[in-house]
Amino acid sequence: MKKPTQVVFLGVLAILSIGIGLWAGMQTGSNDKVEGYPDLGGDFTLLSDKGPVSLQDLRGKVVPIYFGFTHCPDVCITSLSAIAAGLKQLDDSERAQIQPLFISIDPERDDPARVGEYARYFHPSMIGLSGSLEEVTKVAKAHFVIFEKVPLDNSDMGYTMDHSSIVYVVGKDGVIKTLIHHGESPDNIAKALRDALAG
Question: What's the pTM value of the predicted model, to 2 decimals?
C-alpha cells in the first residue's frame, strides 16, 4: 500500500502533467505561427551504451522522448509498451524517420549499459540514455519533468522514484510538437507520430 505522502505526490504529478501542457501552450500567442511547444525542452547530450547522443544530431527525425527508470514497477512499463505498440502500427519508411529515446531519471542505478538494454527490450530502435545526476536533472527540468527519490523501508531496492509520465514528441526541427499523457492508446501515439512526420 502506498503511503499517504506518496498518494498526495502522485496526485500532484497528475495535476502537474496536465498543467505542463496548458502552460506550454500559453507560451506562444494566438497570432504566433510557431506550432508546438518551442519553450519546452531543448537540445541536450547524454550517454548511451554506444557513446554520446545529442538531440541536435537527430534533426530531420521525429523523436519521442520518455523519462523514467529501469526499476519502475508499472508506469514506465505501460508507457514504453504503448510507444512500442504505436511504432508497430507504422510502416518501415515511417519508422525509419523516428528515433525513440528513453532517459533515466535514476542515474545512480541506471548506467548507459543497463538503460540501453532496458530500452531495447521494448523496441529494438529505442535508445536508452543516462548521465550524471546533474546532467539528467538539467534535461528533466527543461522538460518540466517532476521526479523525486522515495526511500523504501524493508526493501532490497532501497528506494524508488516517483515521476511524471509524459511522452514528448519532438519534431524534425527539434521543437516539441505533442505531449502524450500517460494512458494514451497506441492508436493515439501512432497518430501523434504520423502528425509529427507530416509537420
Answer: 0.85
